[in-house]
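Backbone-to-sequence.
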């Protein structure tokens, strides 16, 4: 037998033995975790599916939300993450621009938006002001600009196309990740174009991909209470589908920890998983913890860190076709972000460096969200991760070993 074929055969043999051994060991750990637990049989069945690389059902996910303890979820989610990414933890060097906080919509959880007439706390940047921010980063090794904000009648498809083109001209190396599906739905509706036409127009002017905001919780009965007047779940999904069909990627978020039930969270992730099966265009899933300061939902108590970690883990276990799960550190704080890396998360967003107000105005941990690359690398290394700087599309820029 030729040497390469021999090697392949023995490699296959040893890797099969290793996988079988690791799976048995893994299931033994799980059984120990579940000792004295009367729900053990149901949960072991889910662990067996995960060990066999099988997809878990919506009912399984609901059971995990209702019954599974943190240690159990962490063991499963971490095993999946290690299999997909080893110890790699991704981040990028990015900055945010929020052109305006004036918004035609009235989401009850939003602490940052103001009505079009509230000029006192409101801001609206001119094209020159936006480009001035871009120019501040000249010569700096940032790879992405993230642009989102309020939905304003003056921010038309045409105007935004102009801004994108001007950014691309100044910084052709910069990936422009911009506009939530909510902003895009409004722009396309006002311009009377289909989502495909609108997204293609923006792509031709320099748009690289779209962020995951505006998804909140897809169920109509929840949207009716927290964000009644903006893009529906169907519109959000259709815009992401059109984006993927044009060859661009996008992210997906879920705003959790307010009035939704576990079943609503499962339904939300189920719709995302189904679209991802069709297009494969989502890069990252980002659970966003509801923060209650300064908004119309302030009377709702915020969830505990334990619930945050359970939620990260379940999303990693359920969303088997999403390559990355991201913890957005400005929202949950640096320590919880570090902890999340043991619960299925493999991405910490970026250096951010900005004047981001969406989260600081809602009571986020980090009132001035900015980390240097060295700080971010050190956060990752101190919990045993290998820090990998990526670009928006997860191409490796630098391994910070
Ligand atoms: O859709 C608003 C959320 C989102 C609150 O794609 C709040 O890489 C918690 O989606 N408590 C916009 N969350 C931001 C967003 C995002 C952020 C970082 C990275 C990416 C990405 C996307 O912010 C909104 C809403 O779900 N949000 N208010 C609040 N009080
Ligand atoms: Fe407007 Fe977005 Fe705030 Fe909703 S979340 S009010 S769409 S800025």
């Amino acid at each position: 037998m030729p040497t390469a074929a021999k090697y392949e055969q023995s490699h296959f043999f040893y890797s099969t033995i290793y996988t079988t051994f690791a799976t048995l060991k893994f299931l033994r750990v799980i059984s120990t975790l579940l000792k004295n637990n009367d729900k053990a049989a149901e949960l072991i069945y889910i662990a067996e599916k995960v060990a066999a690389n099988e997809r878990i059902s919506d009912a399984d996910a609901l059971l995990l939300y209702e019954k599974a303890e943190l240690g159990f979820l962490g063991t499963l989610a971490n095993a999946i993450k290690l299999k997909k990414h080893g110890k790699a933890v991704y981040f990028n060097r990015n900055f945010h621009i929020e052109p305006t906080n004036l918004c035609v919509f009235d989401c009850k959880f939003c602490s940052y938006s103001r009505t079009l007439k509230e000029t006192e706390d409101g801001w609206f940047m001119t094209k020159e002001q936006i480009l001035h921010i871009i120019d501040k980063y000249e010569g700096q090794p940032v790879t992405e600009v993230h642009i989102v904000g309020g939905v304003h009648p003056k921010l038309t498809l045409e105007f935004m196309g102009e801004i994108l083109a001007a950014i691309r001209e100044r910084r052709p190396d910069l990936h422009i990740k911009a506009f939530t599906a909510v902003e895009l739905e409004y722009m396309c509706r006002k311009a009377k174009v289909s989502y495909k036409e609108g997204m293609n127009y923006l792509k031709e002017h320099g748009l690289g991909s779209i962020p995951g905001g505006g998804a909140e919780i897809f169920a109509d009965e929840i949207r009716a209470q927290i964000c009644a007047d903006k893009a529906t779940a169907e519109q959000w999904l259709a815009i992401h589908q059109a984006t993927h069909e044009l060859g661009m990627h996008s992210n997906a978020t879920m705003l959790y920890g307010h009035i939704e039930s576990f079943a609503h969270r499962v339904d939300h992730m189920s719709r995302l998983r189904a679209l991802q099966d069709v297009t494969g265009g989502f890069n990252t899933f980002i659970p966003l913890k509801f923060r209650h300061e300064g908004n119309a939902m302030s009377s709702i108590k915020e969830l505990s860190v334990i619930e945050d970690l359970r939620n990260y883990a379940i999303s990693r276990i359920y969303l088997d076709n999403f390559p990355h799960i991201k913890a957005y550190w400005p929202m949950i704080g640096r320590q919880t972000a570090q902890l999340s890396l043991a619960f299925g998360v493999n991405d910490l967003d970026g250096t951010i460096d900005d004047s981001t107000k969406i989260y600081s105005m809602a009571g986020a941990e980090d009132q001035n969200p900015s980390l240097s690359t060295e700080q971010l690398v050190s956060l990752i290394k101190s919990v045993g991760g290998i820090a990998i700087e990526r670009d928006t599309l997860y191409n490796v820029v630098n391994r910070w070993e």
